[in-house]
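Whether sequence alone determines local backbone shape is best considered at the level of individual chains. We regard such an encoding as a compact summary of how the chain folds. The sequence in question and its structure tokens are set out directly beneath this paragraph.
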Amino acid sequence: MKNDNKDLMKKIIFASLAVFCWMQLVAQQEDFIKDVYLSSQGDSLLFRQLNPQQVVPGKKYPLVVFLHGAGERGNDNEAQLTHGGNMFTNPVNREKYPAFVLFPQCPAEEYWAPKTLPDNLRGIPFEVDPPISIPLQSVKELIDRTISRYPIDTDRIYVVGLSMGGMGTFDLLCRYPDLFAAAVPICGGVNIERLGKIKTQARIRIFHGDADQVVPVAFSREAYLTLKNNGIDVEYIEFPGFNHDSWTSAFNRPDFMEWLFAKRK
């Protein structure tokens, strides 16, 4: 009988925790406004937007662009908030770092950066001069529109991305090196010849787990060395023993938000 009571209590606690987490997720999603951007080419880009809690007349605010990973692609306009969204809805962070935040959602079966990764991840998987992907072109147009519509401090535009989004972060940085004050590619990759050619004021912080079995850690190591040799202000943080979800450790760093929002061109 005692064991039955214990099992019942465990089920009640588990159910309560599940309800609490669901309520937290719903609250987070309510803070982010749902919207759709129609690009100049007629393509639809779903996105979520978080605004400062209070917009002071005459004041300008940072803009953060967050690129999710392949697992959050789709058309629900919700999954892209799975990783990282709660950092920006955290009430302490919202008060301390008021900003406009964009979480676009890449359509299913498409990619932020051109898909060139082979299944076996061997050889050089990234092109030197690839055309911009349709979703990323839409993201750039959305950034431009946001700057034109809202009081954005163009010296404080940041891009953060994980996995597929980390590749998209590198891709945006290569295409628009003068746009960003800071870039944070997490477990991403890019053709290092492209990085060797760019000149940018952006501060770059790269994260990767050294046991990543999805995106090889060599991609980030090589990107770091190339940027450093190119005279770019870059920092590389590697998590020993961590597999692909190095973004969890990156987001849990106490200085993640502080480092990002301190950067300006």
Summary: The longest strand covers residues 152-162.
